[in-house]
Amino acid sequence: MVDNSKLLRRTFLAGAGAGLSALALSRAGLRATAAPRATARNLVLVVARGGWDVTYALDPKPGLAAIDAPDGEVQDFSGLPILTHDARPGVAAFFTAHAQRCALVRGVAVRSVSHLGCSARMLTGTSTETSPDLGAITAAELGSDAPVPYLVLGRTSFAGPYAALATRAGTTNQLHALLDPNSVVWFATEPPKWTPSSNQDWMIREYVKLRAGRQREQRDLPETRARIDDFLASLERGEALKGNSALGGFNFNRDLGPQTEVTVAALEQGLSRAIQLEFGDFDTHTANSSQSQLHEEFFSGLKTLVDELASRPGAGGGTLLDETVVAVVSEMGRTPKLNGEGGKDHWPVTSALVLGAGVAGGRVLGGTDDNLDAVPTDLSTGAPAGDGSPIDYTSFTAGVLSLVGVDPSIHLPNAEPLHALRA
To answer: Is residue 56 packed enough to be buried (19+ CB in 10 Å), middle (13-18) or exposed (0-12)?
Structure first.
């Protein structure tokens, strides 16, 4: 017998692989309800929150007077020049294992220096946080029938009009509280005592559905009806999860390890089409040298994630990585020079990694000059080109959408995708 009084404070992530296994609906059942296009892929978004200093790994700038760069050695990994250092073995380990599947995108022009504005640009391809991000779009276009179409494990996401498809886990515990009401932290001395019987629970649920249906019939605006439809659909997804749950007690932290466990389990069991992970904080306005340890922890965690995806069987006979696009982004870069406190401030140019299914790996796309400004680039080849234009956030996000099997012109009609991402 479980003592529920000991279960009042739980969180979602650590050890969640077993919990998600218990939630699983069979792949066959999920695919019977909707047959996605052959090019449809999963999306895993990995956010390095705060704005990383790209000179610590992805865009080495040694020996330049205009840039305060860290110590290290530039090594070539399957065509990718990366800065390495003995203090950051995780960086070398990641690229040794996976550079051949990575497209390294340098010189992404974000055109902002605010965290919220830059995050919206890099994740949605627009300048407004009311637009849906890559995960929300992928879920809406390719995975709306999944129990958890868009699983958000971090803090930085933008669901926009597809909020009904997004489930936040982590510190907000939305999913865990739904599955296990005993996980809620009660501020009163004792939690509520009344628990509805199965028959009472059914009656409450049917009443809510009936009332929502009547409200829908009385509303004339299509937008209002659409929101009610979203609400009713979310009830069905919630019931599907509740009927297949057996979660244990979990302890949350910001390490990529437990987030990786959840991500792999959710993809393997067919629970989600898009998942967002997050690690930070890279916002080093003081002591920019801490970027070294941040890079070490981040790339060590990223290697574990990609190792797991590459070793787990996918639905099509290959691996999960063969049917998943992994986009690794940070909302901004850091200034070329140190400030008076030994830190670096916000910079409107960043780098990103894209790897996995359909990606032309072992290639550097775009670039920066000796002042860390973005250089003009041919979006078809990824090579610097005088008659091109810098890769901006819109082209980057449109390119990722194209990789996962979504027509970017539907959501970003004025964007030219970064075609060079595709193999």
So the answer is: buried
